[in-house]
Amino acid sequence: MTDIKKAFGIITDKVYDALKGQNFTKQKVESSNTNELVSLFTSESVAYSVIYFKDKMLCVLRSCSMTDEGPDNEWKTMATWMFNPESDTEKEADSIGNDFVEAVSSASAVKRVKQAKKKKSGDDGNADPLFLAKRFMVLFPELKEEIKKEQDTKEVFRGVYFTRNFIVPRVNALLQRGVKSEINKLSQILSTQYQNGDMDTRSIITIVILNSTEEKYKEKLEEKMSDELKKAWSFALKMKGKKVKPEKVKKKRNTLSGTRL
Fold this sequence. Notes:
The protein has ten helices and six strands, in the order H-E-E-E-E-E-E-H-H-H-H-H-H-H-H-H. It has helices at 4-19, 90-105, 107-121, 129-135, 143-153, 159-177, 180-196, 199-209, 218-222, 227-236, and strands at 25-27, 36-42, 46-53, 58-67, 70-71, 76-82. The longest helix has 19 residues, at 159-177.
């Protein structure tokens, strides 16, 4: 009988060796389920997971996208193999590992990682007000349904309107609670999205969100805030209280694909 942990190690070591060159890191994870063996490999934009289900004797390679909080857990299966410890040997484990390596090293897989990294950095224009709103679901999960309703009922996502009416009140409530970890996370989200965002997103962060907070919270917000955003906020504060032009409704372009939750 083959030691399943050793066999699993053969498989995952092969996968990790193949992913190192794509700047993946092997994470220390343990399954809370005794029925599973798990390994997790992450890059800035993509996560791969290898899981062995003891009861089904199945070894699965899967992938998902990364968020600021880690894997988004919308896993997609890439390959599945049977491995029976009572009849299969380390030779079969080696074969499974080679197949998984081929899957993560294929041209399409490498291209997906590059495209996901580009999307995450905003280079393809996805770091827009809608993308910003979705980042806040980490702190305010209930935004998911409100974002969906906005998308379903309006021709275009009204970034300023939505932020002012659904995000700003929650940000202020968060600041009033005064939980340091929440405030730090808020600052980190704002800093990252300001860095990656388009001009509309940057304006929403400074003029709509930050300028709607009370002065007494400024010091706490700036503890984990990037220098770039601190500087931008200082300029935006000069606009506080002044009238700005109303948001223009942009015509929706015909496209073959759309952004979905």
